[in-house]
Each structure stands twice: as structure tokens, then as C-alpha cells.
């Protein structure tokens, strides 16, 4: 088993760590965390990411393995939904975390441009090169320099549902948008079952809805043009996608609590509305919903099933997001932690906890906790040239990833009252132009 995350100088300096590396034991088997002399004894590191709840708990278990194997102490702090708003003042004050988990490539480029990031080097750079495909390497690079590692991928073209609700209404998983918004949702409503729980208070979930509709309806070429702002957000293709979203967002009976309830419900409360409270039959969000499903007492693959986001145009969309680990300090241990996070050991540990997908090609399918997640991981690999990275995460964060601004605010307003698609497109264009200036 590869140990590329391990510091070479640490292995040489600490005989116990060297013996562990030679033995090929899994992380957690070293003596560092037990006072036996680890390669990074006495080193304290801080990691910041947006995760809370089960996602945070699972990530901290991954960090625990690094601590036990090296002797380092790693503290975790949540940035909240707006990672940029958290990190900006920290960077200005010289108090940035040693490693930041960035939810947008746009932030990676922004911080690299401000010299707020440290390029990957040594074992961290080697782990990235050995364990990741060219697409993911490019995603974490700025002007050809590697800065980030996609440590957690997210398949964002998924609809989660309760099979008992579908059975009660006598419907099956749809293949097209027309089937979803017509027969399936209509039959559920007729049976007294609200079709969707919406996570509108978490604006990023609304961008996921838009991206799936737009990619399938307008196609990959238009999608790329919109990302690069080569076409305006007032383009007819954007207006058409917004009007299509109104098939769900504009129908009060479609959403738990109606428009008012939808825009006040955050993630992961929307998942609880489906699987804990049974207030709705479906929720559209990424594979990481699995962690909240388990917390609600349901089992993925049994009473929590999925179907692909249905085709709006010719092809069903495959939108992928993810979180990128980047170093923000030159402190000893930073590159070692990044190398560990890029290792198959870390990915394998995380995969077994659920609610996780890896972009690391060395993480085997058998590492995942359930068949559903295994299948989703394979779907990303099979999508080929049609897969696209999350649009809102590629544009400037002021437009695509800031609470109360840009896409989040415009789509929340549209969810409240989806009666003016052209006006919403104009608001999106105004925000996009301001972010570019």
C-alpha cells in the first residue's frame, strides 16, 4: 500500500515511523498518537472546511488517522456556508488555517493570485500526480502550478426518494423531466404525498437545480460558454432553463411548505423532511445526502433510493462538484497532511464512513459502504466528455458562492416567486458582470 503522504525526512528521523512505512500498515497503526514518537510529534495544525454535522464528524475521523500515525495534532474549524467570508479576514490578519478546504475552484484561483496559497511540493505533489487523473490535476492548478487536491467529490445529478411513497402512489422512477414533473409528481400529489423537499435556505442547492436543467437542456458547449461568461446570463437559453425550473418551483403543491417553506428550509433539514419526518417523497441533492439519510434512521439502498436527474433535453446531466484541499502555510506538517489527504488510505477510510465519493483513482470500489455509492462513483468515470464541474463553483465566488449575493440570492428570489424568468436572468447578468469587474 502506498505511503506517499508520509514525510521522507520524518521516516528517516523516526525509526518507528520508518518501520511502519516498511510494513505497509494502514493509517492509525503508528505509535505517534500513543506517545511513542511520531514523525510530527509536537506539530499543531489547523484545518478549516465548511462541513458540519455528520460530514464534519466523518472528516475528523480521517484526521484522527493522520494524528495517530504521525503524532501531529490537528484542530478543525467550520467556515460555515460562506468559506470566502470566513477566510478573507483570516488571511488579512495573518491567521489563515494551515490547510483550507475550498468548495470552489474560483476561490483557489483567487487566493493563489493573492499569494495566499502554498504550491504543492514533495510527497503532496507526488501523491496528486500518482493518484489523480489529468482532469482533476488541472482543476487544482493555477497557471500550471499545482495548488489543490480534490479530496471529496460530489455527484450532483441525483434525486433521492422514498420507495414506500412511490409504491403507495403507484409510480416508478422517471427518465425524463416531463415524466418527473408530470405523471410522477402529479400522481404523488393526488395520493396526498408532497413530491419535493427543497433546501432553498442553502442557496447553493438552488444553483445545483439550475445547473442540471441547463446542462441537459442547453448542452455542454453552452454550459462552458456560460461558465466563461462568453454569453450573457440574459441569453435565451438561461431564460428557458429558469422557465423550466418553474415546473417545480412555481407549483405550491410540489414543495413541502410551499414556496415560503422551501426558501426557509436549509440543507440538511430538507433531507430530514423526506427520511425522518416523511413530509415529502423526494429531495434533489448530491451523494453526500447519504450521511444525513443515515442520521435520519434510514438505510441507503433499502428505504432510501436514488435515480439520475432526469433528462430535460437529449441527455441526462452529470454535474460534479467537490472540495479542494489547499495549503495556506509553510509550517512543518502542512505538506504532509496534504499528501495524506491525497492518499488512497485517506480516501478508503472516508469511503467506508458513507456520504463520500473520491476522485482518487486508487480508491477501490470495495471501499464504499453501499452499492448505491459504488454505482455513483462509476457513473462519474463513465460520463466521459459529457460530465461538467459545478458551474457556480467555477465562476467568481462573489457571484457563484456567496450568501445573500449573486446566484444564491437571485435564485432564492426566483424560488419565492418564479413569475419573471427574464427579470431573474437580468439580475444574474448584473451580478455576474459586477463580479467580473
UniProtKB/TrEMBL annotation:
It comes from Murinocardiopsis flavida. This is Alpha-glucoside transport system substrate-binding protein. Belongs to the bacterial solute-binding protein 1 family. Keywords: Signal, Transport. The keyword Cytoplasm does not apply. SUPFAM superfamilies: Periplasmic binding protein-like II (SSF53850). It comes from the Bacteria. The keyword Kinase does not apply. Residues 1-21 form the signal peptide. Pfam families: SBP_bac_8.
